[in-house]
Amino acid sequence: MNRVLDADFFHRDVLEVAPELVGKIVAHRLSDGTVLRERISETEAYRGEEDKGCHASKGRTKRTELLYGESGFLYIYLCYGMHWLMNVITGEKDQPQGVLIRAGERFEGPAKLTKQLKIDGSFNGRPACGECGIWFEDDGCRPEIKTAPRVGIDYAGDYWKNIEWRFIADRK
DNA sequence: TTAGTGATATCC
DNA sequence: GATATCACTAAA
Question: What letter does residue A91 receive in the DSSP assignment?
Fold first, then answer.
């Protein structure tokens, strides 16, 4: 029996949540009742205003407001005009943190994942549990995790660019 | 390597 | 109102 992750799971520091989310399953129930499932194979952590790679580093705005809010909510962001990226808010309120879901086992790449799961901006700000149709499950899988520097944030400077806050399932 | 794409933030 | 920027992908 799969355990659905509740708010307590996300209500911790992003550096604890992000590696644990690897190997979990993200599920989405469509309006017609179909349930799409995908095991997460890669995440990245974004944490704090001092993290130059984090959207909240520029301060609290309408867009980043969600990052400061309650843990367990979804932050969906449109990148380059055509790609939806999915994040989950973690940690304490008023502390900007989030986990970027970068890839699934079958859908490698953050935009492919959201596309295949049919997730778009309409889910921005929704809770990541039951009611809105999106939730996370733990089926007991505990993959080996390896770390790597985050990608796509060359602008963030040497320190934040090279910090290893990317978590990847080490496939056997 | 480059084009394509549109919301957001920032600068008039 | 205008422009610069961007946590990407696909095609070449």
Answer: S
Calculate the alpha carbon distances from A56 to A18, A29, A96 in Å: 18, 30, 6
Quickly give A79 CA vs B9 C1' distance in Å: 14
Instruction: Give the nucleotide with minimal C1' distance to the Cα of A98.
Output: C7
The per-residue pLDDT for A171 is: 63
Model confidence pLDDT, tens digit, residues A110-149: 999 999 999 999 999 999 986 779 999 999 999 999 999 9
CB atoms within 10 A of CB A161: 16
**By CB neighbour count within 10 A (0-12 exposed, 13-18 middle, 19+ buried), where does A103 fall?**
buried
Cβ distance A73 to A131 under 8 Å?
Answer: no
SS (H, E, C) A99-146: EEEEEECCCCCHHHHHHHCCCCHHHCCCECCHHHCEEEEECCCCCEEE
Q: Locate A70 and state its tokens.
A: 């309650």
Cα A126 from Cα A147, distance rounded (Å) = 29
Question: Which nucleotide lies closest to A53 by the C1' atom and the CA atom?
Answer: C7
